[in-house]
């Protein structure tokens, strides 16, 4: 699949998976809804900084964006397992887990 076809498809997958509307994604990325719609409708290809903002909104790296779900490039099996668990948590559960993890570092 070509990049200009893959990017909108992947963004739609991530929106569905994370239950994020296109309107909410525009807010999270500080992008206009028109700019986001142009990407989604294959009228434009995002720049790397724009793609980074989209990835940040979903809490993933660009490598993870292009690898797709279930693919965790450059991670050990344990790290991949942690990220799979993380992906299934809601915002409150993620906050609780992060607070717990931060206490382990002290």
UniProtKB/TrEMBL annotation:
Protein name as it appears in the record: Helix-turn-helix transcriptional regulator
Pfam families assigned: HTH_26
Stretches assigned to the HTH cro/C1-type domain: 11-65
Source taxon at top rank: Bacteria
Gene3D superfamilies the UniProt entry points to: lambda repressor-like DNA-binding domains
Organism per entry: Jutongia huaianensis
Alphabetic keyword roster: DNA-binding
Transmembrane segments: none
